[in-house]
Amino acid sequence: RKVYFDTHALVCLLEEKGFTTQQSEVIVSALVKIMDTNLDMIYKDMVTKVQQEIALQQVMSHIAGVKKDMIILEKSEFSALRSENEKIKLELQQIKKQVMDEITKVRADNKLNLNLEKSRVKELHAQQDRALTQTDRKIDTEVADLKTMLETHKLDNIKYLAGSVFTCLTVALGFYRLW
């Protein structure tokens, strides 16, 4: 902790520059005191190599403890994440199964509704066909009745015409005979 320099050489240098011996010694003495005080201040803030090694060992042991804690934490976090991931997978599988069941239900309902609609449409077509057939029969019956009626009227007209013609002929022959 001591500063080593040649104080006598400094005194001689100061004397060469015009200082007296007493002044030079006082200046050198003051410089030595100042340097000692400064060194004491500097050494207060400094640590020895042994202290530094102890502090380094303490820091390294603290870092090792923190590393262990981090590894333990990481493992526990990882296992927690893994278990959470497994839970989510199970929930996802359940949801997937529910969705598939719902899709199957919807498909079955749609097929049933489609088949019901098809049968309703077929029944409606059958009803329309029956109604059309009945209407065709009615029309055919009416046409046949009209033809029959037309034929009877025709025959009646022919009868009346023939009767009228024979009556006219008879009258005409009666007049001819009378003349």
TrEMBL record:
In this entry, which stretches build a coiled coil?
none
Q: Does the keyword Cytoplasm apply?
A: no
Keyword annotations of the record: Coiled coil, Membrane, Mitochondrion, Transmembrane, Transmembrane helix
The record's section on InterPro entries has: CCDC90-like
Superkingdom in the source lineage: Eukaryota
Question: Is the Secreted keyword given for this protein?
Answer: no
Q: Which residues cross the membrane?
A: none
Q: Which GO terms describe its cellular component?
A: mitochondrial inner membrane
Q: Where in the cell is it found?
A: Mitochondrion membrane
Q: Name one GO biological process term.
A: calcium import into the mitochondrion
What family does this chain come from, according to its entry? Belongs to the CCDC90 family.
Protein name in the entry: MCUR1 regulator
Query: Which organism does this sequence originate in?
Result: Thinocorus orbignyianus
